Structures
1.
Amino acid sequence: MSEYPEHDKLTAIQAQSQKIGEFLEWLQCDKHVRLLGEYGSKTTEEGEPVYVPIRQSKQQLLAEFFEIDLAKLEEEKRQMLAKCRAMHSDGD
């Protein structure tokens, strides 16, 4: 494993995650199916639970499913960028 473990995990699941994301997009755009919701605590007058949108994006849900910490991933990106900048400034 490299010094960027979250990126390693992301690379390992990238194709699978991409396919799931494309499937969710296909459902939403082509089939007009919305899956990004849950039954909340409110009910209708008939006592049926109300389906409400969730606050997580598809990206957040996929990261959670594949156990990728998005905050750590962002920190690794910042580390990579800092390392690149340091390498380029040393050559000036």
2.
Amino acid sequence: MEHVDARQLWVEQITLTNFRNYAYLAVQAGPEPQVLVGANGAGKTNLLEAVSLLAPGQGLRRAAYPDLARSAGDGSWVVSARAHTHLGPVDIGTGLVTDATERPGRNGGRIVRINGAPAGGSGALAEYVELVWVTPAMDALFMGPASERRRFLDRLILCFDPSHRTRVGRFERAMQQRNRLLADGVRDGARFEGLEQVMAETGIAIAAARAEAVAGLASITAERQKRDPASPFPAAGLAIEGMLEADLERLPAVDVEEAYAHVLAANRERDRAAGRTLDGPHRSDLLVAHAPKAMAARLCSSGEQKALLLGLVLAHAELVARRRDGVAPILLLDEVTAHLDEVRRAALFEEILRLGAQAWLTGTDQHAFAALAQKARFWQVEDGALTGFFAASA
């Protein structure tokens, strides 16, 4: 193995038990890129999904935890890993149990253990592992609903602000309770005030975090464009569109919070008629444009959209690395070569190596990863089993 930077974030070993199509799998990885090749349905994405569960949340597919269990198993599953983090090596275990002697995770969620000790929920993983992923489902990110772009941005924010997930959760719970009161015909203002105050406090914090993240990404994107004007990953024009974000540009946060609470109180009847809350960070949108063409991303070709998406992810990885003393997040890139020509593929691999990030990449065609020969660890995936092999230079 090549010399390993002690600061690098990487997964050294990962073990799957009764997870998706794997009865049992143990993978000994290295800090270099890990390339998984094999036919569709072999289990490549399943392994990436397992790695994604080393971070908070439901993983890259956002699947219900019971759905992660192997169909021929007993309904339980386990993912365990040895990861090298900024806090040193750490053993992470997570899973779903059916044994009545084992307490299930909080709220019926997955169990998480860190160095053998219960962690109290997946949120604790944010202190150790930072992940960013790109999946085929995200190819339509710029064409789909605003909720998908908000989720994408919020996932990026988690890498340098783990508490962002908690704020989003508190806001959504308070909003749901407010919506329920509206639906039930409640008109007692006292029953709304506490919920609306929580929404105002967390809503402003969410909007501010998103605005800061977009500004940081825009700055890195501009630097990347200046550094390499001919980059096959075009600079993205970025903006966050929303009532709270617009107010934060011209008013102190405390004033925006007070104004938002007033808006919520004043518009209860309107929201009651609509059947939902119409104002807040849950209505914001991430606007992305192909900067050199001055064209909205949704109007670009599929290849240009994929290049814009990857450019954003690479810019984010660089932003995280700068804020983490040079430590880039782990990248999970599923079927990443789709819609990328040979030039863009080579440029992507070069960027991954420059960042020093451990990346897990999947594809059906080994030749698409020829530029990574002798620079990455290659694995053949077949019927729930992995076999390492040597990839010669093209």
